[in-house]
């Protein structure tokens, strides 16, 4: 796939006045492929929103270069911005305006001709059509969030930024929202999302980028990342509690549960030899009876926490 958003050596420094300066982005590099869903993950203050704002032209970079569809976001701002749809974290809508007029107006801002059929289709896909004549102030928080998405889609962008789009949206509506996102991806729209619901990133994303302290730590195919970094854990339920792990088993790095009735063994699920059979044989030799066995694989959230922890010693 071709690169549609190219971010090179991006730096953003804020003047902190008497408190000094703050470097929000420290030479960030990120290439986003056309037609993919990229999850941008990072802790609060990592630089996610600053990065998005800079790509969208809301914030001016201190240095570095960004192109969207080959258009420089500074020297060719209008052409670049025309390709971008943005759903911000904050709900900024005119409370007395009606839903249909709000979305229609956003389309007009980009110089596109009136197309109520297209706008109505967007509203239907976001389960907003029956509210098209309602004022914004009459909507729930989740519906207002979906109006923001409708506004971002009104000018038919090729790149869509979703900055915490699920905030305040209930589970059922969230599922419908992600169905719309998948549909857009299938139509060739590139999606970049930030989310605190990491299980959504695990379910939705084609690739994952992790940002911390203004730097991109990792960009990788989600499935490849899971396969490369995921650890598996074997939990052994014991027939009788142990007070301590026998010396003969210390080499396995076992962790004894608080009540002494479980042993946990972590291993590389992709390794040719996992050591499980040998461990079970040694447990039997030590006279330790087992009641049950179960395995669990590390999820994306645990991988993310580990990456960020390593970057914040």
Note down, in words, how this protein is organized.
The chain is an alpha/beta fold. The protein folds into 2 domains: 3-227, P-loop containing nucleotide triphosphate hydrolases (Rossmann fold); 231-297, Alpha-L RNA-binding motif (Alpha-Beta Plaits, 2-Layer Sandwich). The chain has helices spanning 48-55, 77-82, 99-109, 116-125, 141-153, 171-186, 198-204, 222-229, 276-285, 300-311; strands spanning 3-15, 21-33, 37-41, 63-68, 71-72, 84-87, 159-163, 190-194, 207-212, 215-221, 231-238, 255-256, 262-268, 290-297. The strands form 3 sheets. The protein has a 6-stranded mixed beta sheet, sandwiched between helices. A hairpin with a 5-residue loop joins strand 1 and strand 2. Helix 3 packs parallel to helix 5. The longest helix is centred in the middle third of the chain and has 16 residues, at 171-186. The radius of gyration is 25 Å and the shape is elongated. The two termini are 36 Å apart.
Percent range for β-strand residues:
25-35%
Count of strand segments = 14
Query: Secondary-structure element sequence?
Result: EEEHEEHEHHHEHEHEEHEEEHEH
CATH class wording of the largest domain: Alpha Beta
Write the CATH architecture name of the largest domain: 3-Layer(aba) Sandwich
The secondary-structure class comes to alpha/beta
Q: Strands across the major sheet, in which order?
A: 6-7-8-3-9-10
Tell me the CATH superfamily of the largest domain: P-loop containing nucleotide triphosphate hydrolases
The CATH topology of the largest domain is: Rossmann fold
């Amino acid at each position: 796939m071709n690169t549609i958003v190219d971010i090179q050596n991006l730096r953003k420094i804020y003047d902190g006045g008497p408190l000094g300066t703050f470097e929000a982005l420290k030479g960030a590099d990120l290439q986003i492929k056309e037609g993919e869903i990229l999850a941008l993950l990072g802790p609060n203050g990592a630089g996610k929103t600053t990065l998005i704002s800079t790509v969208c032209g809301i914030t001016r970079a201190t240095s570095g270069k960004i192109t969207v569809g080959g258009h420089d976001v500074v020297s060719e701002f209008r052409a670049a911005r025309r390709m971008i749809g943005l759903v911000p974290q904050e709900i900024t809508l005119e409370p007395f305006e009606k839903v249909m007029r709000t979305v229609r107006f956003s389309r007009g801002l980009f110089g596109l001709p009136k197309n109520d059929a297209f706008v109505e289709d967007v509203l239907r896909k976001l389960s907003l059509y029956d509210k098209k004549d309602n004022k914004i102030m009459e909507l729930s928080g989740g519906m207002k969030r979906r109006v923001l998405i409708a506004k971002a889609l009104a000018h038919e962008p090729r790149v869509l930024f979703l900055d915490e789009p699920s905030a305040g949206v209930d589970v059922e509506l969230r599922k419908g929202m992600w169905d719309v996102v998948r549909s857009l991806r299938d139509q060739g729209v590139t999606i970049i999302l930030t989310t605190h619901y990491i299980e959504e990133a695990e379910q939705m994303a084609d690739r994952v980028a992790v940002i911390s302290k203004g730097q991109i730590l990792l960009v990788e195919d989600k499935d490849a990342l899971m396969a490369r970094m995921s650890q598996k854990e074997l939990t052994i339920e014991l027939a009788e509690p142990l007070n301590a792990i026998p010396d003969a088993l210390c080499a396995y790095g076992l962790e004894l549960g608080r009540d002494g009735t479980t042993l946990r063994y972590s291993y590389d699920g992709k390794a040719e030899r996992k050591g499980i059979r040998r461990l079970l044989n040694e447990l039997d030799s030590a006279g330790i009876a087992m009641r049950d066995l179960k395995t669990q694989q590390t999820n994306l959230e645990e991988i993310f926490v580990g990456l960020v922890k390593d970057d914040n010693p």
